[in-house]
UniProtKB/TrEMBL annotation:
The active site is at 139. It catalyses: a uridine in RNA = a pseudouridine in RNA. It comes from Amycolatopsis suaedae. This is Pseudouridine synthase. NCBIfam families: rluA_subfam (TIGR00005).
C-alpha cells in the first residue's frame, strides 16, 4: 500500500469526497467510495465517508493499493465513442469525456481499447498488453479525435511520427479572459507540480514544452483559441494557459473560475482535440481527421456567444 497526502484545492470546496477525490486522482467514484468504506481516506486526520464534504485547504490522506501486475482489457462498449475512419492499418475515433485510453491501476471506468474490442476492432499486438495499438493519448477528461494502430507496421510508423513530432495535432480551447498577444507561442518547460503531485506545472527543470495558439473568437469573459502542439506533455495546454493566467474555462484543477464554470454548465475543462493529421502508414499520403464538439462544450460556447 502507498499513502498520498493531497491538499483540497479551492475549486473542490463543498464537493463530495467521492467526486472530488475521483477528480484529483483520476479514479472512478466507485473506486474512491470503496477506499472510503475501507477507512483508507482521511480528511484532516479523521476517516471520511464518500458523501462527506470537502473544505478548501483541508488535507486528504489516501492509502492506495500498490499497482498490480498486468492490466486486463475488458471488451465493454463505450457510449458516445464514434469511429470516424477504419482501414487495414488504422482506426480513427472520437473519444467522449470520462473515457481513459487504456486500463491503468485504479481506473475502473471505460477505455478506448475496451470499446474497440467490444466493437470487434482488432488492433496491433505491439505495446504492453493493456495498451496494444496505442500510439498517443488524450486525458480522460479531454474529448476529441485520436488514432489507434491496427497493424504492426502502422504501430511502428505512427509511434515514430509522434516521437519525431511530424503529426499535426490541433486543439480548440476556451480560455478565460483575452490572451495578449492574440497569436503566439508558449515555450515553457513542464514537470510534476513541486507541491501537488496530482497535477503539473511550469518548472525550470522540466521537459521542453511548446504550444502555438491563435485566438479565433473573443467573448466578454473568455476566448476561443486554436492550438497546435509541438510537444505532447501531460496536461500541456492546461498548464501553459494556466501559467499565462488564462486557464481553460471549467478547469478548476488549474485555477479556473468555478462561478463561470457553473454558469456555463461545465464540469470539466473546455478542451477538445479537434483535428489530427499525419502521413498514412500504408503509403505516406497525408490524411487529416476532425471531431465535432461534444454537447457540453457546444452548449457552453452557445452561452458565451449569446452574452
Amino acid at each position: 500500500m502507498s499513502a498520498r497526502m493531497l491538499p483540497v484545492p479551492d475549486g473542490l470546496d463543498g464537493m463530495r469526497v467521492d467526486a472530488g477525490l475521483a477528480k484529483l486522482l483520476g479514479l472512478s467514484r466507485t473506486a474512491v467510495a470503496e477506499l472510503a468504506a475501507a477507512g483508507d481516506v482521511l480528511l484532516d486526520g479523521r476517516p471520511a465517508g464518500k458523501s462527506d464534504r470537502l473544505s478548501a485547504g483541508g488535507l486528504l490522506e489516501v492509502t492506495l493499493p500498490e499497482p498490480g501486475g498486468e492490466q486486463r482489457v475488458e471488451p465493454v462498449a463505450v457510449e458516445g465513442m464514434r469511429i470516424l475512419h477504419s482501414d487495414d492499418d488504422i482506426v480513427v475515433l472520437s473519444k467522449p469525456v470520462g473515457v481513459a485510453v487504456h486500463p491503468s491501476p485504479g481506473w475502473t471506468g471505460p477505455t478506448v481499447v475496451g470499446g474497440l474490442a467490444a466493437a470487434g476492432v482488432r488492433v496491433s499486438t505491439s505495446g504492453a498488453a493493456e495498451r496494444q495499438g496505442v500510439v498517443h493519448r488524450l486525458d480522460a477528461g479531454t474529448t476529441g479525435v485520436m488514432v489507434v494502430a491496427k497493424s504492426e507496421h502502422a504501430y511502428t510508423v505512427l509511434k515514430r511520427a509522434f516521437k519525431e513530432r511530424t503529426v499535426d495535432k490541433g486543439y480548440h480551447a476556451v480560455v478565460q479572459g483575452h490572451p495578449d498577444p492574440m497569436r503566439g507561442t508558449i515555450d515553457a518547460p513542464i514537470d510534476r507540480h513541486p507541491r501537488h503531485d496530482y497535477k503539473f506545472a511550469v518548472v525550470a527543470t522540466g521537459r521542453p514544452s511548446v504550444t502555438h495558439y491563435e485566438v479565433v473568437e473573443a467573448f466578454r469573459a473568455a476566448s476561443l483559441a486554436q492550438i497546435k502542439l509541438e510537444t505532447g506533455r501531460t496536461h500541456q495546454i492546461r498548464v501553459h494557459f494556466s501559467a499565462m493566467r488564462h486557464p481553460c474555462v471549467g478547469d478548476l484543477t488549474y485555477g479556473a473560475d468555478p462561478v463561470l464554470a457553473r454558469k456555463l454548465g461545465l464540469t470539466r475543462q473546455w478542451l477538445h482535440a479537434h483535428t489530427l493529421g499525419f502521413a498514412h502508414p500504408a503509403d505516406g499520403r497525408w490524411v487529416e481527421f476532425s471531431a465535432d464538439y461534444p454537447d457540453d462544450l457546444a452548449h457552453a460556447l452557445e452561452l458565451l456567444r449569446a452574452e
